[in-house]
Design goal:
The protein is α/β, with parallel strands linked by helices. 32% of the residues lie in helices and 20% in strands. It has 13 helices and 20 strands. Strand 19 and strand 20 form a beta hairpin.
Amino acid sequence: MRLVVVGSQWGDEGKGKVTDFLGQNADVVVRSQGGNNAGHTIMIGKEKFALQTIPSGIFNPHIKNVLANGMVINPKETLKELAGLKERGITNFQLFISNRAHVIMPYHILLDGAYESLKGSHKIGTTKKGIGPCYADKVNRIGIRMGDLIEEESLKEILSSTLPLKNKELKMLGLEELDFTTIYNEYKEYGKILKPYVCDTSLLLTEEIEKDKNILFEGAQGSMLCLDHGSYPYVTSSSPTAASVPVNAGIAPKYIDHCVGICKAYTTRVGEGPFPTELHNELGDLIRERGHEYGTVTKRPRRVGYLDLVVVNYAKRISGIDSLALMLFDVLTNVEELKICISYNLDGKEIKTIPATLKEYARCIPNYITLKPWHENINKVRNYEDLPIEAKEYIETIEKYTNIPVDLISVGPERTETIIRKDVFKK
């Protein structure tokens, strides 16, 4: 079984818990895009782990964890993350890094911050971790890949031709130029440490598929941050959709069996851009505090709004979502004013999709249906039938307007605080 987990909103939907939960039945867990700008928060018992680059299967010694070719990897931060895990007793793991994944270099981080600052009021809201500039170098064919990082002569050759270009760019932006020898000596050491993990992960995954292993492709960011189909330009630098997984992991599209969309019971987003259901009131503040809606990586407060099914249906269309995992459902307990957006009004016309331009999207007015609240504590509920009738009506409304079954319902942060209506990892 090859299962893809995608965010069905603007990211931060709770993918960490689901990938950890589903990963218990996986033989392989794969990150296929993004970099250390995407965090997964995972609760194991009372312990909280914040992962940025490493796949969530890292806690199970029997799982093969893959950083695939579609990722951009900061070797310094990856080693720091591994060291942090080892300090907390996570020492027995399997990690494989694609030799075709691109490397985030110091100049990428400097350029990311500089260009973001220059945009002023039009800033994207980037994490300034060098993700975009690294992907830009990949497209411009001047990037350094993990296979180059672990080969000193290859690293020296590419860095010696690329760094002069980057130094001109840094100088143009009023920043200090970087020294070749300093960077080369630092990064060749990272290459030596990481070399045992680096391999052809496309080949590894194909071999695992041929053995009929369970493979979980865990998503980073959300569908609305897709470079092609998201709320451009307020998007990430890669595609977090299920459609991108085959090329970013080096496998054939026919091998994807099922797509789980992770959907928060309300909507959040970080950074700039239109957000039709955003709440600028005490209710928004209440949900933010209850749901601990602050960035895993950046700690920035997230913008909060009502659940928007136009967004979820859009994610369904571009990713082929087969089932939903509804996250942070318990946060809505005792929320007196429950609403779900089912369509927009744009210039007097009802629409049920996302406009291509920001100007149009900013003019969209949400059309809501109002639902009754529930007041019972649902944290200990494990069977769908035991939920309050109002809570079930909320879930059934989602199913009605998306035509997607809600197979998993999270009623608390811990792995066990989950209602399973269907085992999505079963063939």
